[in-house]
Amino acid sequence: MILVTGGAGFIGSNFVLDWLALHDEPVLNLDKLTYAGNLESLSSIAKDPRHIFIHGDIGNPTLVAQLLAEHRPRAILNFAAESHVDRSIHGPADFIQTNIVGTFNLLESVRAYLNGLDSEGKAAFRFLHVSTDEVYGSLQPGEPPFAETRRYEPNSPYSASKASSDHLVRAYHHTYGLPVLTTNCSNNYGPYHFPEKLIPLCILNALSGKSLPIYGDGQQVRDWLYVKDHCSALRRVLEAGQPGENYNVGGWNEKPNLEVVHTLCHILDALRPRPDGASYTSQITYVTDRPGHDRRYAIDASKLERELGWTPAETFETGIRKTVQWYLDHGDWVSNVSSGAYRQWLDQNYAAR
Asked: Cα–Cα distance between 51 and 190 in angstroms, integer?
């Protein structure tokens, strides 16, 4: 069995679904179900005995110790995090508590668990910490993409909290010998993405006739990674990554935000044209930029390709079209997320489990 923390969030839920589609090995899924945790994203496996969902917090040492003792996982993948930069600017306390203190408590629980394993169990165990490229700061135009040797220079409360958690994970490897792996990924997009991030927000706003808000001049550059590719990279790192190592995960798809939104509009123009025949690009508006907005991120994922043989399967063009089609095909999920009805999913589907 593996333990996945934050497995009802965007990336975590995609990982759980892909894992169970490819493996018979069960998943113990621990999620606090904050605003972005959505069990409806896991509705297809609600009755699958290989998926055990626990509503709880990684920062609860008693609960985590109990779960580790009862289920004895061979690996932990830590997705649990507060992850929205704007929210971290307006309210950083939750980010400090979950991303730093929560990770510390989880590491302490894992350290105690490993002390009770025999030498074979210890050698086989892995702790995979899922992090972000934002810990590296911002790149200048023409500057090489982030490599694993890049100095940490976080610029927001969110990225600072993730950088802190990365440092804790590293320290627990070097001090206590925990067999840890850390991945730093670029911007993800794809199915089940909570509609506060750029791509799902613009898709849903476009279809609702609302404005498509662009920060500043829209020339902030990001490296875009289809979430299913991220999941495949994580499986590969878990399988063959070397303990103590960091692996950057990127899609080799640098795009300015404004270009991304124009691409979304053109796909929607083709797949679901506006009744008046106008392009969805007419809904683009410009809003005041975010404080301290990083200008450019780009990931050098060559180490992951060189050492573990991983490359992304999707280009941005193929992945973004799949993403738009998914949102068009899953109106019920979109409606429930937009209305808040998704929060009823726990009571409706897991109360008796």
From this structure: 22
Buried b (16+ CB within 10 A) or exposed e, 40-56: bbbeebeeeeebbbbeb
Model pTM above 0.90:
yes
What do you get for the CA distance between the two ends of the chain, in Å?
A: 19
Tell me which of 40, 57, 82, 133 is the catalytic residue.
Answer: 133
Q: Which H or E run includes 276?
A: none
All residues at 6 or more sequence positions from 106 whose CB lies less than 8 Å from its CB, including other chains = 5, 58, 59, 64, 76, 78, 80
* 148 flagged as catalytic: no
Yes or no: say if 322 and 235 are a contact pair by the CB < 8 Å rule. no
134 labelled catalytic: yes
Dist. CA 55–CA 34, nearest whole Å: 10
- The residue ranges of every structural domain in the chain are 2-350
Q: Is 70 a catalytic residue?
A: no
CATH architecture of 2-350: 3-Layer(aba) Sandwich (3.40)
pLDDT digits (tens, 9 = 90+) for 80-117: 998 767 788 888 999 999 999 999 999 999 999 999 99
Map tokens 């089940």 to a residue: 192
* 131 vs 11: CA distance, rounded Å: 11
